[in-house]
Write a structure and sequence with these properties.
The chain is of the alpha/beta class. The chain has one domain: TIM Barrel, CATH 3.20.20.70. About 40% of the residues lie in helices and about 15% in strands. The protein has six helices and eight strands, in the order E-E-E-H-E-H-E-H-E-H-E-H-H-E. Helix 4 packs parallel to helix 6. The longest helix has 15 residues, at about 60-70.
Length: about 170
C-alpha cells in the first residue's frame, strides 16, 4: 500500500502572485508556471502565503487558482492555498479549487484567532469531509502563533483525504 500523499512526492514550489498596476499579471504568472514545468517541478502551490493569500481579494484568489490550473493543463500538479481563519471561507475556497480542477488543497492553519487543538482538528475535518481532493495541513507556528501538535496531526491523518503536512 502506498503512503498517504505519495502521489505528491517530489518538488512542490510555492509561486508568487505577480501584479502590474494593481492587477494580476497573467503573463508573468504564465512565465512562472512554464519555468517551473521546464525545471522539473512536480507540483505548483499558488495562492499560499508566498502567493500573498492573506492580501488577495476573493475574486483575485479564485482567478489565480483558475489561471494556474488552466495554464498547467495537467502537465504538473496544482495544490493552491485555500486556508483561512474562517472555516466557511476555507471550505468555499477549497470547493472552488476542486471545481476548477486542482489536484489538492494546501490549507494554512487558522492564524490570529489561535484555535485550540480541538479547534484545529474540527476546522480541517469540516473542510476535508466536504471535498474529495487531498488536503495538505500547513503548520507554520512562527506565523500563526500556534503549533498543531503531533497528536492532532495524527488524528487528522485518520481522515482519508488529509494526506500531507507542510511544516
Amino acid at each position: 500500500m502506498a503512503r498517504k500523499g505519495s502521489a505528491f512526492a517530489g518538488l512542490s514550489v510555492a509561486i508568487t502572485t505577480p501584479f502590474q498596476n494593481g492587477q494580476i499579471d497573467v503573463a508573468r504568472l504564465r512565465e512562472q508556471v512554464e519555468f517551473q514545468i521546464a525545471a522539473g517541478t512536480t507540483c505548483l502551490c499558488p495562492t499560499g502565503t508566498t502567493g500573498e493569500s492573506p492580501t488577495l481579494t476573493h475574486e483575485e484568489h479564485e482567478r489565480v487558482i483558475s489561471e494556474v490550473v488552466q495554464l498547467a493543463r495537467g502537465r504538473i500538479k496544482v495544490m493552491p492555498g485555500t486556508g483561512s481563519n474562517s472555516t466557511a471561507e476555507a471550505l468555499r475556497l477549497t470547493r472552488w479549487a476542486a471545481k476548477e480542477g486542482a489536484d489538492a488543497a494546501l490549507m494554512v492553519a487558522p492564524y490570529y484567532n489561535k484555535p485550540t487543538q480541538t479547534g484545529f482538528y474540527e476546522h480541517y475535518k469540516a473542510v476535508a469531509e466536504a471535498v474529495d481532493i487531498p488536503i495538505c495541513v500547513y503548520n507554520i507556528p512562527g506565523r500563526t502563533g500556534k503549533n498543531i501538535e503531533p497528536e492532532t496531526i495524527a488524528r487528522l491523518a485518520e481522515i482519508p483525504n488529509i494526506t500531507m503536512v507542510k511544516e
